[in-house]
Design a protein that fits this description.
With 754 residues, the chain is an alpha+beta fold. The chain contains 16 helices and 37 strands. The longest helix has 23 residues, at 602-624. It binds (2R,3S,4R,5S)-2-(hydroxymethyl)piperidine-3,4,5-triol.
């Protein structure tokens, strides 16, 4: 036994100086990389946790299979750039000032972040063999959540500019495997976001991307690759990744015929270029990836914890998300002081905590044809300004929120008339309007200053706790004449726009630390790990019909947690779907109400108030619990859904069950739960807004965790009822004796309880 094989690797970064090798060890995984004698940085392992450094191979070049499959293509380089005999997926492409387009980066040194850091880190420096170009590869570890957070930084250390044409965040390599693999991605459209797409991973490249200037409604920068469990494995192993970027992005997944699987991604290369000036550094967004040995729910829970613990703005992250009312579906552009006060009074009766006036409040905004850019209350709608409305909302015991769409301008606005040169445009082309609006160039300092002043004035003059920040069209005609004239690279504007949005949000938050922001782009078009660093919640979709919402929310929740998933009960489905079902669907996330309360009956108001009161009692479990989808509406074509939220201590849980209809009658199966303590007894308590008979009549009201997981909750619904749902709370009453097992540690109940 040599030294290496006797030392157990603890979570953290373990370096083997002699072999230029590092193991990034998390609670359940190991990610290892090393430097070959040629100076190439390659991946050595990513997957289940290894025990000792001796478990890792020496970093060396793979054998060349043939002259068509050279070693540089076969090895798992941590950041392969276009250059030499590399034909696999690439992370970078660069053009030097002399026209050379070949990268040859070699390892120089490594730097470890101090052990005490919350997320321990490792930075490797690579340098081109000929040109003064340095690449820093950054790694951070989220130890408890089995995540590796990667980014890259390019530094031009010479005197001449270097042009980046592709500068992705990372390349990830999955180990070779006999198991067949399934790729899961999220695709969508307006009012149909986050639909789960599953396809077998076969040889070829799968591409997901946005070219619209925002994260996009049409695809999400998230994916998972699941292996069919091999004999002897309990749950599928899942590799998953999420990109922290709110502009154009691209993720490519390549599998070759040998099963070698590589994922690369970052800022999209589409219409991208960055002129790296002498002395300048360009840093890519974070690309977060993880390994879960307990299936998709395990992957989902890891990302949720990461968002809650690390990503969200810290001042708000630990507060319960308030129940909000939003005026959009009730009043659209027909906003007035009196009308909003009437809604606010009704909302307060329901127990709403935050009243948000959506679109339609500012100068000239009678429809979507005018007003964007002029962020002052319209005197025809608010002759006394916003003050009296806000005061009334406060008197009713609610906080006040306001809708804005800062990046946009209507040609019919004072702003556009004064600054027609502030929008993206090409001089010889028409300016394509979408929803009658154009996009302001947030790369420009003067545009950002104008917007900061306008929004800061609103927030300073009024007590506004919450901004809903919308973005209702993609960028087009991406021209920036002034920048080009100064010798700038206009194709930088996609990135500069996103940086501009971040800078504006960051500045507003710095000046107003208690401000919350909701990210919206016609629904869930800007929902990603980077926007959530500066926003608290996301508007999930303009589709508020409960049947569609179950599908959208299942997809959304693969990438992002319940506390950021805005979900309103509106009039969609009213008269067709019981109010309880509609509330249950919205209670899966950050609950809100968006219906026209003026038309709600006294019974509807009472029932709604009762559901909101129940939600406030259980929201800590929804917003901060471990979320497991027990029944997938995607897999059952919308027929069933069931979601469980479990406290970290596993002593409380909620189960939401939904059945759209039961056309053939008959009972459905019991619902097997997860994540409970098998040796604890749980009280089973249906939560009901109205005093109806308990569905548990004839069924036990106390069961062990073992029974709830092995045989399940009994079917609690009437056989024929359509749009039927229930909400059950489980509370631990007592823990029985120790749950003895003859299985090894790793296969105890945790393994089956994702
Ligand atoms: C799109 C959003 O998704 C809606 O909720 C609403 O805010 C409208 N924009 C307002 O124009």
């Amino acid at each position: 036994m040599n030294d290496l094989s006797s030392v157990m690797m603890e979570p953290g970064i373990v370096a083997d100086q002699g072999r230029s090798l590092w193991a990034l060890v998390t609670e359940h995984s190991t990610y290892a990389l090393g430097v070959t004698k040629e100076g190439l940085v390659i991946n050595l392992h990513w997957g289940p946790r290894l025990a000792t450094l001796a478990d890792l191979p020496d970093p060396s070049l793979a054998l060349t299979h043939s002259s068509h499959d050279p070693a540089l293509t076969s090895i798992a380089e941590e950041y392969p750039g276009f250059g030499g005999l590399r034909y696999g997926e690439l992370a970078a492409q660069v053009v030097f000032a002399d026209g050379v387009r070949d990268l040859d980066l070699r390892y120089e040194r490594a730097e470890l972040l101090p052990d005490s850091a919350r997320l321990p880190g490792l930075t490797l420096s690579l340098r081109d063999r000929h040109y003064p170009l340095t690449l820093l590869l950054r790694y951070q570890l989220d130890l408890a959540n089995d995540l590796i957070i990667r980014s890259a930084a390019w530094r031009n250390e010479g005197d001449e500019p270097i042009r980046l044409e592709r500068a992705f965040s990372a390349a990830w390599h999955l180990p070779h495997s006999f198991a067949s693999r399934t790729l899961t991605t999220l695709a969508g459209q307006w009012v149909g976001e986050s639909q789960i797409q599953r396809r077998p991973l076969v040889a070829g490249t799968a591409l997901v991307e946005s070219r619209r200037g925002i994260t996009s409604l049409n695809a999400a920068p998230w994916l998972a690759i699941e292996s069919e469990p091999m004999p002897g494995q309990l749950a599928p192993e899942v590799y998953f990744a999420s990109l922290a970027w709110s502009g154009n992005w691209m993720i490519r997944v390549n599998c070759d015929v040998t099963g070698k699987t590589t994922v690369v991604g970052g800022i999209s290369e589409h219409d991208f270029a960055w002129q790296l000036a002498a002395g300048e550094t360009f840093t890519t967004p974070d690309f977060v990836a993880g390994f879960a040995d307990d299936g998709l729910n395990g992957a989902r829970q890891r990302l949720h914890r990461y968002v809650r613990e690390t990503v969200l703005p810290t001042s708000q992250a630990l507060q319960p998300r308030p129940v909000l009312y939003n005026s959009w579906e009730a009043t659209t552009f027909d906003v007035s002081e009196q009308g909003q006060i009437e809604l606010a009074e009704l909302a307060a009766r329901l127990g709403v905590e935050l009243f948000v006036v959506d679109d339609g409040w500012f100068l000239g905004r009678v429809s979507d044809t005018a007003g964007l850019g002029d962020w002052r209350p319209d005197p025809r709608k608010f002759p006394r300004g916003l003050g009296p409305l806000i005061e009334r909302v406060h008197d009713l015991g609610m906080a006040f929120g306001l809708w804005v769409e800062p990046e946009m301008v209507n040609p019919d606005s004072e702003l556009y008339r004064a600054h027609p040169d502030w929008v993206y445009a090409f001089p010889t082309r028409a300016r394509s309007e979408a929803r009658n609006q154009l996009v302001l160039n947030l790369g420009r300092e003067d545009v950002r200053s104008y917007l900061f002043e306008a929004l800061n004035r609103l927030l300073t003059e009024h007590s506004i706790a919450y901004l809903k920040w919308d973005m209702n069209r993609p960028i087009s005609e991406p021209g920036w004449a002034d920048y080009l004239a100064q010798g700038g690279e206009a194709r930088e504007l996609w990135v500069r726009h996103t940086h501009g949005v971040y800078a504006l949000m960051d500045a507003l938050r710095a000046h107003h630390p208690s401000l919350s922001i909701e990210s919206c782009a016609s629904g869930g078009g800007r929902a990603d790990l980077a926007i959530l660093r500066r926003t608290d919640q996301v508007w999930t979709s303009d589709n508020t019909h409960p049947e569609a919402r179950l599908l959208i929310q299942e997809g959304f929740s693969l990438a992002l947690p319940a506390r950021v998933m805005g979900a309103w009960v509106t009039d969609a489905g009213r008269g067709q779907v019981p109010l309880a079902f509609r509330f249950h669907v919205s209670m899966l996330g950050a609950l809100g109400v968006g219906g026209n309360l003026i038309h709600w009956s006294a019974e509807e108001m009472d029932e709604a108030a009762s559901w909101i009161a129940i939600y406030k009692q259980i929201r800590h479990l929804v917003q901060d619990g471990e979320q497991s989808w027990l029944l997938s509406p995607h897999a059952t074509r919308g027929q069933f859904a069931a979601v469980q939220y479990t406290s970290q201590a596993r002593d409380q849980a909620l189960v939401f069950f939904f059945r759209r209809d039961q056309v053939f009658g008959g009972s459905h199966s019991p619902l097997r739960l997860c994540h409970l303590k098998p040796n604890a007894l749980y009280r089973i308590e249906p939560l009901r807004a109205l005093p109806t008979a308990s569905p548990l009549q004839g069924y036990p009201t106390v069961l062990s965790g073992a029974a709830l997981m092995a045989t399940g909750l009994p079917p609690l619904l009437d056989n024929w009822q359509t749009h039927a749902s229930y909400l059950v709370k489980l509370t631990e009453i007592t823990v029985l004796s120790t749950w003895r097992t003859h299985l090894p540690e790793a296969e105890r109940y945790d393994r089956t309880s994702s």
